[in-house]
Amino acid sequence: MFGTNSLFESDLIKKYDLRLDLSEMFIARYAYIDKLKTWLATKGKTYFAGGGQFHDVIRVVNNYGMVPEAAYRGIPNPRSSHDHTNLDTAMHRLGRKFLRAGKTNLSSTDIQQVNDTRDKYLGKVPSTFRYQMEQYTPRSFAQKLIHFENDYVKLMSFADQPLYKKCLLDDKFNWAGDSLYNIPLSDMQILIDSALTNGWSLGWEGDVTETGFGTFRGFATINDSAYNYDEERLKNYKTEATERDHMLHLVGIGKDEDGEKWYHLKNSWGSWANDNGYVFISENYFKLKTVVLMVNKAALPKYLKGKLNINQ
C-alpha cells in the first residue's frame, strides 16, 4: 500500500501539480473486506491476509474513494507506527468462523462484525472530512482530486506467456485474478528509461527476501551475471525461488564508477533500515527478481503503446 501510494502521490504532482499525502490504511481497510468476500466465494482458496498488490489500491480508489492521511491514519491509539499483527489475527479468525459456517457471501450482520473488527484496530473512517476548506466524502475526494479511473497498466515478463497480450499472473497474492500485459524484459528496461527521462516514476514488485537484498546496506545485487534471464526468471518464479513479496517506488536510474547500471527505489520500510530509506538495485538483480511493474499509461513509449494496442 505504501509503495503504491507513493507512486500515486508522485504522479499527482506530475499531472496536476497537486501535493497530497494519501491514507495507506484507508486502502488496507477496504482491500481486506474485498479479499474476504473473494476468499469466502472460493471457499478459502484465494489469498486472505495482510498486505496487497498494486491493483488492490486502484480497485479501492475506484470503488470506495480515498482520504488524505490527516483524515485517517489508521492508528486508533497514539502510536508512531503501524503494527497489524493483531488485526491480521482477528480478521483471519473471523474469516475462518464464516467459512466453517458455510458462508459464501456476507450478510449485513457479518459486514458489521468485519467493520467492528477493523474499527477496533484501525479506527473508524470519517464519513465526511474537511480538506483545504472544503467538505468531502471519501468518494467525492477521489472523484475531484484523484480520479485515476483507468490510467495505469501493470506489466510482467514471463517466457511461457504470449507477448504483448494481457495474461493472468499465476500467483498466490493475485486473489482477484487480475491480468497483466506480458512484455519482453528488454522492453521493461526501455520503459523505465523512457518514463524516468520524461518525469514519470514506476511501481516495482519483486523479491526482497534474497540474500543479495541488503536492507541495512541500502543495495541489492546478484554477483553472478551468467544468466539466461528468460529461462531463469520463469524457473525461479514457478518454484517460488523468486517471490512477489514487496512493492517499492522506482524513482531513478544511474551508473556507478564501473559503468554498471543501478535502479534507485524508495522503500516503505523507512529510514530505520538505512540512512535514507532508499535502496539501489543492480541491473542483474532487477532482471532476475522483478515480477511486476506498474506505470501511468501516459509514460509508455509510443512503440509500446502500439504493440499493446493502448490508445490512451
Walk me through the structure.
The structure is a single chain. With 312 residues, the chain is α+β, with helices and mostly antiparallel strands. It has 2 domains: 145 residues, Cysteine proteinases (Cathepsin B, Chain A); 157 residues, Alpha-Beta Complex (Cathepsin B, Chain A), CATH 3.90.70.10. Helix content is 39%, strand content 18%. It contains 10 helices and 12 strands. It has a 10-stranded mixed beta sheet with strand order 4-5-3-12-6-9-10-11-8-7. The longest helix has 18 residues. The model has no long low-confidence stretch (mean pLDDT 89).
At a glance:
This protein has two domains: 2-146, Cathepsin B, Chain A (Alpha-Beta Complex); 152-308, Alpha-Beta Complex (Cathepsin B, Chain A).
Q: Which spans of ≥5 residues are poorly predicted at pLDDT below 50?
A: none
Hey, roughly how much beta strand do the residues contain? 15-25%
Would you count the extended β strands for me? Answer: 12
What's the SSE pattern? Answer: HHHHHEEHEEEHEEEHEEEHEH
Structural class: alpha+beta
Query: Helicity, in percent?
Result: 25-40%
- CATH structural architecture of the largest domain: Alpha-Beta Complex
Cα-based radius of gyration, to the nearest Å: 20 Å
Number of discrete helical segments: 10
